[in-house]
Amino acid sequence: MDDLAGFLRTRRSRVDPAAVGIPTDRRRRVEGLRREEVAHLSGVSVDYYVRLEQGRATQPSEQVLDALARVLGLDETERGHLDRLARQRRRAKAPGGRVRPELLRVLDLVADAPALIMDHRLDVLAGNRLAGLLYGRQMPGLNTARHIFLEEAERGLYADWEKCTLDVVGHLRLGAGKYPEDPRLASLIGELAMGSERFRRLWARADVRARTHGRKAYRHPLVGLLELHQENFALPDESGMELVVLSAAPGSPAEDGLRLLAGLGADSGDAHPPVNAQVHE
Questions:
Q1: At what angle do helices 76-86 and 161-178 cross, to 10 degrees?
Q2: In what order do the strands lie in the sheet with 115-118?
Q3: What is the distance in angstroms between the CA of the first residue and the CA of the last residue of the chain?
Q4: Beta strands in 34-168 (DSSP E)
Q5: 215 - beta bridge partners?
Q6: CA–CA separation, 279 vs 246, rounded Å?
């Protein structure tokens, strides 16, 4: 699903030769660095680096990975991804999708902000009432990658749709590096590639992104623009799950919008969306 060779090829194609001291001219036809240039700058033999890019060399040392990361200008997230790809012979089993009852109670306690629990596939395993009102649907069963790329009727919900697609693909790339033998993740990626040209183009770039925090804007059909702040809390049990909370700044229009949204849901007799995690492995 993802491999070291492909990642190295995409990364070297993005390095500006001039930035690493290599003069260029109009006759240069290679985008980024040549293989032999990466090898020279990293202090490894050309033959060894070629074997890395062909998938014929396994288990490179930490020193080699550090040198490659330096030459290719990898950030911390990309460096971790490089290490996982290089160690894929030790396969990590994909975690299960059961949410502990205690976590469901935590979701119920978050009353003034949409909150949900997601896994590495971007499956929403549970969500509070306000999350259900924001997305206009039940939370268990929603996959945000599929929602963003394939459900065109919902595309208007995301005010920063293009940025969201970058984040989603980068997150799925990380998941593919951590769990290369996860059949459900592979199936999802195949479905997205078949159904979305943009997904295919972004996936080919092999970018990786860690989801931690940042601005998230929604265009809700009932309450308008909601500019929220997203915080991702990785759960400390190696489940691959995250608690995601979307909060509004105090006194902001978004805070008023969330309050209005909660009131509209109550006025319509909308029941509390269930927060159980009906996920089968």
A1: 30
A2: 124-127, 115-118, 242-247, 224-234, 213-220
A3: 19
A4: 115-118, 124-127
A5: 229
A6: 23
Residue 141 contacts residue 161 (beta carbons within 8 Å): no
pLDDT tens by residue, 159-208 = 999 999 999 999 999 888 888 888 999 999 999 999 999 999 999 998 99
Helix (H, G, I), strand (E, B) or coil at 98: coil
How does pLDDT run across 18-63, given as a tens digit for each residue? 888 887 776 777 778 888 888 888 888 888 888 888 877 767 888 8
Average pLDDT, integer, range 80-93: 73
Q: How far apart are CA 205 and CA 173, in angstroms?
A: 10
What tokens appear for 127 in the block?
């969500």
What's the one-letter identity of residue 109? L
| Cβ(225)–Cβ(159) below 8 Å | yes
Q: If DSSP codes are grouped into helix, strand and coil, which group holds residue 117?
A: strand
Going through the chain in order, the beta strands assigned E by DSSP cover 115-118, 124-127, 213-220, 224-234, 242-247
Tokens representing 3 are 């491999």
User: pTM here?
Assistant: 0.78
CA separation for the pair 179, 100 (Å, rounded): 22
Residue 125 phi, psi dihedral angles, 5° rounding: -90, -25
**62-72 helix and 35-42 helix, angle to the nearest 10 degrees:** 120
* Residue type for position 116: L
- Which residue is it, tokens 């306690």? 109
The torsion region of residue 214 among left (phi > 0), alpha (psi -120 to 50) and beta comes to left
